[in-house]
Amino acid sequence: MEKNPDKGYVALLGWSLNAVEAAENFDRRYLVVAPDWAEEYCEQHSIPYIPWNFERLNDRSMEIAELLRDKGVDVAIPLFEETVEWAGAINAVLMDNPRLHGQAVLFRDKALMKRRAQLGGIRVGIFEEAHDHDDVIRFLKRVNQTLLKLDGDPNDPIHLKAFDKAGCLGHRVIRTPDEIDMIPEEEFPVLMESHLDGWEFAVEAWIHDGKIRFLNISEYVTLGYSVFVPATPELESWRPLIEKEIEKLIKTFDIQYGQIHPEYFVTSDGTMYFGEVAYRPPGFKAFELMERAYGFNPYQASILVFDPKTTEEEVEAFFPTPVVGAKGYAGCFGVYPRRRVVSRLEIPEETENHPYFDYHELTPPMEETVTKRTAFGTHWGLVFFFGDDPHRMRDLLKHQEELDFYV
Fold first, then answer.
1. What pLDDT, on a 0 to 100 scale, did the predictor assign at position 369?
2. Whether the Cβ atoms of residue 14 and residue 54 lie closer than 8 Å to each other
3. Which of 152, 201, 243, 316 qualifies as a FRET site for 355, CA 20 to 30 Å off?
4. Is residue 289 within 8 Å of residue 331, measured between CB atoms?
C-alpha cells in the first residue's frame, strides 16, 4: 500500500511475518528491527530492516534509539515480551519522555507489576518473590495457614511464574513440598502467587489518548491448550465490569496509547482479580483469531493506536463493534502429544471432518520420543476452528484434549 508521509513512521521490534505483512498493507511507513538471522529474508523481499540483538540492555542500548530517531521514526512497537523493555527505552528517547522506560519495566517485572496494581486499588492475590526452595516452602505453608487449613487437609495450590517470561513459560502449580524439590535451581528467582478460584480469561485492548478504543475478551477453555474469540454470552455479560477494570489499569499504569493484554479471574459473585498485564500482542495466535472473527487486522490496529499522528476520526472508523461486529467464532487448540513415543502426524478424522475445522499448523514429528512436559510446556502446533455457535466451539475445543494427533 502507498505510504502516507503525514502519518507516523513506526519501528516493529522483533520478527513476526504476520506483523510485517500487516505493515506492508497499511498506509504507515515502517521498518523492522530484528536479529541478524532475519536479514536475508528482508533483503529478498525488500522489507526495510535494521539488525539488532535484543539479548540484553547494555551500554549500546542508546545506539538503536538514536539510529531510529535519526531516521525519523516516531514510535517503536514491541511484538514480543522480550522487546517490551526495549520499546520503552527507545520511545523514551523518540518521544523525549523518560517515564516510558520505567513504565515498560513495570510491564516486564511481574512482582513490580503486582505492586503497582495494588497501589492503584486493583485486587490481586497474595504474592512474593522466591530466591530458593526454602522461600517456596515457607510461602506454601503461610498461604495454607492463612486459609485455616488443618493437618491432613489437602493444600491449596500456589503458582510459580518466571518474572519476565511470556504466557505459560515457567509456570508451575505447586501443591506439596515434594513438588518444590523438582524445581531446577536455574529457574530462581521466581514470583509466587496464591491460587485464585474463578473464571480465567484474557483481554486484548487497544488504547488511544488514554481511552479504550476496542476491547476483545478471549475465553480460555483450558489454560495453555485452547482459546476462542469472541467469548460466550456468559463471559461477555461481565463486559461492563471488565471495561471498568481496564480503565483502572490504564490509569494505574498511565497508559496513553498502545495495545495491552491483561489476564483476569472473575468469581461467581462478580469480584474481579488481576492476574498480569502484557504490553504486546498475545500468544496462541489470538490476533489471527480476531482477524478471522472480525475481519480487521489487529497488527494494523496496534500501529494505528501507537502512532502519535493518528487522528480521532481514523480510530473511530477503524474498529468494528465488539461481539456484534464479528462474523463468527474463531478458536484454536494447542496440540501436545499424549503418547511418550510417536512416529507420525495423523489428524483425527472427527476433527478434520467437523464443520468448524478451518486449518492446522502441525508438522510431522522431528523425533520419536516425546519429552516429558514440564510445567505448562510448549505445544507442538495449533489447530484452528471457525463457526457460529460459541458453546459448540467451547465443547469442540475441550474435546480435542481427548484425541491423539501424533501416533
1. 75
2. yes
3. 201
4. yes
Q: Are strands 127-130 and 190-194 parallel, antiparallel or unpaired?
A: antiparallel
What CA–CA distance (Å, rounded) separates 300 from 318?
9
Q: What was the pLDDT predicted at 167?
A: 54
Question: Which amino acid makes up residue 55?
Answer: E
How many Å apart are CA 212 and CA 253, to the nearest integer? 14
pLDDT at position 375, please?
47
User: What is the reported pLDDT for 59?
Assistant: 67
Phi, psi (degrees; rounded to nearest 5) at 202: -120, 160
Distance of CA 25 to the CA centre of its chain: 24
Instruction: State whether the Cα torsion 130-133-135-139 is positive or negative.
Output: positive
E strand or H helix that includes residue 162: strand 158-162
Q: What is the pLDDT of residues 278-300, one digit of tens each?
A: 999 998 899 999 999 999 999 99
Which residues touch 92 (CB under 8 Å, ≥6 apart)?
A: 65, 98, 99, 100, 101
Give the burial class of 343: count Cβ atoms within 10 A of its Cβ; 0-12 exposed, 13-18 middle, 19 or more buried: exposed
E strand map for 246-372: 257-266, 272-278, 329-335, 357-360
How many residues are given for the chain? 407
